[in-house]
Specification:
Layout: E1 8-9, E2 15-17, E3 20-21, H1 22-29, E4 33-37, H2 38-54, E5 59-64, H3 71-79, E6 83-86, H4 89-97, E7 105-107, H5 114-122, E8 127-130, H6 133-145, E9 150-157, E10 160-164, E11 166-169, E12 179-180, H7 185-196, E13 199-205, E14 209-212, H8 216-236, E15 242-244, H9 262-280, E16 286-289, H10 293-296, E17 300-312, E18 316-321, H11 330-334, E19 340-342, E20 352-357, E21 366-373, E22 381-385, E23 405-410, E24 413-418, H12 423-427
Parallel strand pairs: 4-23, 5-6, 5-16, 6-7, 7-8, 8-9, 9-12, 9-13, 10-14, 13-15, 15-16, 18-20
Antiparallel strand pairs: 1-2, 2-3, 4-17, 10-11, 17-18, 17-22, 19-22, 20-21, 23-24
Bound molecules: pyridoxal-5'-phosphate.
Length: about 450
Amino acid sequence: MFFHGTSRVNERGHLEIGGVDVVDLAKEYGTPLYIYDVALIRTRARAFKEAFKKHGVKAQVAYASKAFSTVAMVQLVEEEGLSLDVVSGGELYTALKAGFPPERIHFHGNNKSRAELEMALEHRVGCIVVDNFYELQLLEQLSRERETVTDILLRVTPGIEAHTHDYILTGQEDSKFGFDLNNGQAEEALRQARRSGALSVLGIHCHIGSQIFETTGFVLAAQKIFQKIAYWRETYGFVPQVVNLGGGFGIRYTSEDDPLPASQYVENIIEEVKKQVAELGIAMPEIWIEPGRSLVGDAGTTLYSIGSRKEVPNVRHYVAVDGGMSDNIRPALYEAKYEAVLANRVLDANEEVVAIAGKCCESGDMLIWDLPLPKAEAGDYLAVFCTGAYGYSMANNYNRIPRPAVVFVENGEAQLVVKRETYEDLVRLDVPLRARVRK
Ligand SMILES: Cc1ncc(COP(=O)(O)O)c(C=O)c1O
C-alpha cells in the first residue's frame, strides 16, 4: 500500500490525513467527502517553483484550475505565489471572488464568448491565450473599443500528442484546440495579431496532453515551436517573451504509475529551451507551465460509506458506496484506475477481491473493478486515493445526487471549504409549471 503526503495509519488503525482521523471527518461532515491534504498541495507547488528558481529561469507556474476550482483552492494557490489558468467565465469568477490578482490570471478556452472576453478585459487579466481566428478578431475588436492593447499568447498545436508513455507525432494534429503550427495557421495568426495594433503577442503556448510520464513530448514540442520561431524571427522580427508548454505532468494513481519528480520535467524543459535559444542567439524567454493534476491529484482522497453488497457466485463480489460517477466520473469516462482502503480498518488483512460500485443508475458506474479488501460491511468507510484532480470539478447531479462537501486538512485541523449540496439546492433553479386550467 502506498500513502501519499501526510496520509498514514493512526493508533486506532484508521486512515489519517493532515493529522486528522478521516473517520472523525466522516462523522462530522458525512460521506461522500472529498478530503484535501493541504501540505501536499504546498509541497507540489513549491517543487515546480523551486525547480525554476534553482536554474535562475524566469517562470510562471500557473495552476490549471479546471482540475479543482473553488474559492479556498484559489486562495491556497495565491498563498503559494503561483499564477492561475482559467478556462471559463465561471473559473474566472471564482478566481476573482477568491481575491486572486488578475494580472496573474491566464485566460484559456477554445470558444470564449464575447461576454467572457469582456469580463477578462474589464478585470485586466494578465493575458489571454488566443485559440482561433474568431477569437483573434473578436478580441481585437473589443480591445480597440476599449482603446487598450491586450497581451496574448497564441495557442498552437505542434503536431505532438502525449499520453502517459506514448507520444504521437502527427503532421497536422486533429485537435479542436489552437492554431496548427505546420499548416500556416499559426503564422497567419501571428501576422494578424501583430498587424492589429490592439494585441501584443507575448509568446506561444501549447499543451500536448495529460498524465505524461516522460519528458520527450515536452522537449519535442519545444523543438517544434523554436523551429518556427527561428523562421518568424527572420521573417517578421518576432521574438517571444514567453514560451508556455502547458500542463500534463503525470501522477501516481496506482502502483502501475511511475511519475517523474517535478524537477525532472522542469529541468529537461529548461535544458531544451536554453539550447534552442543559444542556437538562435535570442534572449531567454520566460517559461510558463500549467500543472493541474500534478498539483492536486494525489492530495485528494474521497471517503465513502459502504452500503449494499451483491454476490455473483464464482464471478464477482459487488460492494456499493454512497457515491460514484456523480462525484468521480473518470472511471466511467476514461477507464481511470484507482486504489483504495477501508479507512476504518486499514491494517486488517485483505480477504477478498471486490468490485466497487457507485450508486448511480448506470451499469458503467463502477469506481474500481478489482480491489483487494478485508471483508467489507455496511458502515465501513472506503477511502479512494488520488481523486483530487477532475473529481469535484467534474462532479454532477446525475440521479439528483447532491454533490459532496470538501474539507481541507492541515496540521491536525480540518476546514470545510465547500458545503455539501442539499436537496433544496437541487431544485433551487427549477421553475414549477405555471398553474393551468385543467380540462
Ligand atoms: C491548456 C491546458 N493547460 C493545462 C492543463 C492541465 O493539465 P493537467 O491537469 O494534466 O496538468 C490542461 C488540461 O486539460 C489544458 O488543456
